[in-house]
Amino acid sequence: PEGRGIFHNKEKSFLVWVNEEDQLRIISMQKGGDVKGGFERLAQGIKAVGDSVKEECGQDFMLDEKYGYIHSCPTNLGTGMRASVHIDLPGWTKEGVDKLKARC
Question: Is 92 within 8 Å of 103 (Cβ atoms)?
Fold first, then answer.
């Protein structure tokens, strides 16, 4: 739809998602265990996007002293930050889903 899109770098390790659930979702992701590297890329990207917004319209991201950053989705109030880790566990499903559930 018009006014919505996702923009990413060549490696697809940094993405900016516009007008999906939130007005703006900034994502840094990569394979491997370099969490610090992924977070540093995220911090640099947030600053670059924020600087661009400020230059374009003269405004900063909306920040409330009590509630934190303001989002269209109330569950994201505060820092609005969410981290996830996906782990490949080879062989854990070869005996079927019931065995996997028993392990969990």
Answer: yes
- Lateral strand order in the sheet of 5-8: 5-8, 14-18, 24-28
Our measurement of the distance from residue 22's CA atom to the centroid of its chain's CA atoms, rounded to an integer in Å, reads 11
Number of H helices, E strands in the chain: 2, 5
What is the reported pTM? Answer: 0.71
Distances (CA, A) of 28 to 31, 43, 57: 11, 9, 25
Q: d(Cα 17, Cα 23) in Å, to the nearest integer?
A: 8
- pLDDT at residue number 7: 93
The amino acid that residue 65 corresponds to is E
Decide if pLDDT at 46 tops 70.
yes
Fill in the amino acid letter for 22. Answer: D
Name the residue with tokens 């890329």: 41
